[in-house]
Amino acid sequence: MHSNRRKATRILIIYTGGTVGMVVDSQSGALKPIGFREIRDNIPEIVRLGFEVDVHAFNPPLDSSNMQPAIWVDLAGIIGKKYDGYDGFVILHGSDTMAFTASALSFLLENLGKPVILTGSQLPIGEIRTDARENIITALEIAAARKGGKALVPEVCIYFDYQLFRGNRSKKYNAEKFEAFYSMNYPPLAEAGINIKYQREAIVKAPEAALKLHSKLDNQVAVLKIFPGINAATVDAILATPGCKAVILETFGSGNASTEAWFIAALQKAIARGLIIVNITQCDGGAVELGRYETSAQLQKIGVWSGHDLTFEAALAKLMFLLAQKHSRKRLRELMETSLRGELTND
Fold first, then answer.
1. What tens-digit pLDDT sequence spans the chain (347 residues)?
2. Which of 39, 63, 196, 198 is 20 to 30 A from 250 in CA distance terms?
3. Of these residues, 16, 19, 97, 119, which one is catalytic?
4. How far apart are CA 48 and CA 42, in angstroms?
């Protein structure tokens, strides 16, 4: 899809699928994915934006529940291949796993100097009350926004319901509201009203170095979410997952967990045989502070790593990214506990 004449600004839409492009199946009554043509037909305003818009569509479209690390690598590859030809990128994506994809892309696209904006909708594009139109149009405007010849938002972001968030700080928290995402530990990068107001101090500065594309992720990661009454068999089963290299330990509050001897011993035994255990809080806001309470001091003592204020989505993506790079254990811990793409707050 092109405007009638060549403009200086070019944006690439990558349509992966999701609710944004779904219609009701006449036979089953369930939502099913459609192609980008139907999306374009429902948003004729796209051609009036004043810049060129091209489309790369997944065929067939993919429900975001089927998103996999290999597809994150493919998405990064598409952006890397098209990088020099476009000023920004908009990824249309299902909202359920959008924060995972945004987090992964932030790590795969090192030295990113152009906007990569993920968006979607809670209602399909064909619905009268759909939120898809505003989300897509404003995402395109943000992807095209420049000042002094440089992108205003040179990072991977999520735009949803009038707010722009850093992708690796975002989380989907509501399955029904149009306001589906929030970022508890980092402020919005922009808010859209009559004008789009950018929070310049919160946006990462464009790097001087060229884009470095990474193409490997290691998904040998497991998750242990603790709860009152969790038993030893469950903990042992997760810690002994075949091939597993790292476990994300989702703890209470600021990193607290049971101090029962069997639980600490199970973690200590797993760490001794080489398993990496990263502690993140089950809370959507706040951070892990190992040693603040007695219930986290023992975790610190046996060698559990702190995930600080990483979201679950960012912790998962970052572990997959770092494990694939074959770092030493010491270096991997240093990188895991250091902000690489603005994903955590450095002390």
1. 444 444 479 999 999 988 787 766 767 877 666 666 677 777 888 888 889 988 888 888 888 899 999 999 999 999 999 999 999 999 999 989 999 999 999 999 999 999 999 999 888 777 778 888 899 999 999 999 998 889 999 999 999 989 999 999 999 988 877 888 889 999 999 999 999 999 999 999 989 899 999 999 999 999 999 999 999 999 999 999 999 999 999 999 999 999 999 999 999 999 999 999 999 999 999 999 887 776 778 899 999 999 999 999 999 999 999 999 989 999 999 999 999 999 999 75
2. 63
3. 19
4. 14
Tokens of 247: 């476990």
Q: Write down the pTM of the prediction.
A: 0.92
Nearest CA to 51 among 83, 112, 9, 18? Answer: 9
Q: On the CB side of 23, how many CA atoms lie within 13 Å of its CA?
A: 11
Question: Hey, what are 341's tokens?
Answer: 């793409």
Q: What is the DSSP letter of 252?
A: B
> Is residue 16 annotated as part of the catalytic site, yes or no?
no
Q: How far is CA 80 from CA 68, 83, 84, 110, 113, in A?
A: 19, 5, 8, 10, 12
